[in-house]
Design a protein that fits this description.
The protein is of the alpha+beta class and 407 residues long. The protein has helices at residues 10-16, 71-86, 91-103, 108-123, 127-137, 139-142, 152-163, 167-186, 200-203, 216-225, 233-245, 249-253, 289-299, 312-325, 336-347, 352-359, 367-370, 376-396; strands at 25-30, 33-37, 43-49, 59-66, 260-261, 266-269, 280-283. It has 18 helices and seven strands. A four-stranded antiparallel sheet has the order 1-2-3-4, covered by helices on one side. Helix 2 (71-86) crosses helix 3 and helix 4 packs antiparallel against helix 5. The model is unreliable at 366-371 and 401-407 (pLDDT under 50).
Length: 407
């Protein structure tokens, strides 16, 4: 550094400010940094560099004016420019990008909205719910913060508000925000590592894994009552089709009539309604086809299989109370119907890959890459046998409400 660098001093610079001179003059500080003194005594910092060696023409970029940009700050900018050069980057372009990020940084809300629009809208069936959660729990508190300046503690304050009333929801919110920030980072939109080290246990708790399956008397109750008058038509139809197909509630809740081919009798769940982001193709078992036609005639003006779209929270709340309406002592949820469906079909000898496809799961390993078959004949046979099994079980327990169920 001695002898060639840091030749200027604040005292010498202050003497030149406002002093008139016959012409513009440059004074070098070293390592490419110099200050230009205009005829009227305005001092401007410049960094001079070459790209391609000494045989190329020098380039000069303006860093700022003295004393607004101090000697110390000018040297720091010079060192940053030299570091960019060492990395093979043009300091002029990098300086423009850095200045733009400083003057108009990406906010937390902009980063999360970028993920919602560029990823979740195409990959998540419930992305509207994601946006509602962010609007409620994140945007009002740190939405306008520059993402790069938002620290872990700011995020934790948001999660703490959710944890106070819904610790499981706080964990989901963390996972969603972590995925969003990773997406922004990978796509070079914005960078933040504030959530990298956080786990669900830091902000809430994981949802308890359930292993609830319905026994035969319970299944008889459910199958009988979803074809009866105990429930309102919307929920009776929803429950009936959840039992038949073992599908997720959102696939039926959002189902449009144009998803149902009533010539080939195939239901195609579009990828935007699928949790995994892939379309799901299921044949319609013979016994339920008249009911699908009935729903079509009843709701053809709406274009929706169930006639309307209820909010997921309303469906979940209704589902959590069904066991009471049926007189079952052990709680169960609508999602437990999928577990009962899968377990029973496997016990009936249905091939595991057929069961997995009916559930809407992707096949693992090389099968996911090379095997594109939908196994429609095998699926239809499985669902027809499942319908026969349901009628058989209902016949074993006619009109008997189960008052006690072993946990």
């Amino acid at each position: 550094m001695a002898g060639g660098t840091n030749k200027l001093s604040d005292s010498s610079l202050r003497k030149m400010v406002g002093r008139e001179s016959p012409g513009d003059s440059f004074y070098a500080d070293g390592d490419g940094l110099s200050v230009k003194v205009s005829r009227v005594g305005i001092l401007t910092w410049y960094f001079t560099f070459r790209i391609g060696g000494r045989n190329t023409a020098p380039q000069r970029i303006k860093l700022g004016n003295y004393p607004d940009l101090s000697l110390k700050s000018a040297r720091e900018k010079r060192d940053q420019c030299r570091a960019w050069l060492a990395e093979g980057k043009n300091p002029q372009y990098q300086l423009n990008i850095s200045t733009q990020e400083t003057l108009k940084p990406v906010t937390v809300k902009e980063a999360l909205e970028y993920w919602l629009n560029e990823y979740a809208a195409h990959k998540r069936a419930n992305f509207v719910k994601h946006r509602e959660q962010l609007k409620k729990h994140i945007y009002p508190y740190i939405g306008n913060y520059p993402l790069s300046m938002c620290e872990t503690r700011h995020w934790l304050e948001c999660f703490a508000r959710v944890r106070a009333v819904a610790p499981v929801a706080a964990g989901y919110l963390l996972q969603m925000c972590k995925q969003a920030l990773k997406f922004c980072r990978v796509h070079r939109y914005a960078v933040s590592n504030a959530l990298d080290d956080l786990t669900i246990d830091d902000v809430g708790r994981k949802q308890n894994k359930l292993d609830r399956e319905h026994n035969r008397p319970e299944l008889a109750d459910i199958w009988r009552e979803c074809t009866g008058i105990k429930f309102k038509p919307y929920y009776a139809a929803l429950l009936r089709l959840l039992v038949v197909f073992g599908c997720r509630s959102q696939e039926l809740r959002l189902s449009r009539l144009d998803e149902w081919d009533m010539q080939e009798w195939v239901w195609t769940v579009p990828k935007e309604h699928s949790k995994g982001g892939e379309r799901i193709v299921r044949p319609v078992p013979v016994a339920v086809r008249p009911f699908i036609l009935e729903l079509y005639e009843r709701h053809k003006d709406s274009g929706l299989l169930l006639g309307e779209i209820k909010k997921p929270e309303a469906v979940s709340q209704w589902g959590r109370g069904v066991y009471r309406r049926l007189g079952h002592s052990a709680p169960w949820t609508l999602h437990d119907l999928r577990r009962t469906f899968a377990t029973t079909l496997n016990n009936m000898g249905i091939a595991p890959h057929v069961v997995e496809q009916l559930l809407g799961h992707t096949l693992g390993g090389v099968m996911a890459v090379y095997n594109r078959s939908q196994y429609l004949p095998e699926k239809l046979e499985a669902l027809n046998k499942w319908m026969e099994r349901l009628d058989l079980i209902a016949g074993e327990y006619p009109n008997v409400t189960i008052l006690k169920v072993a946990k």
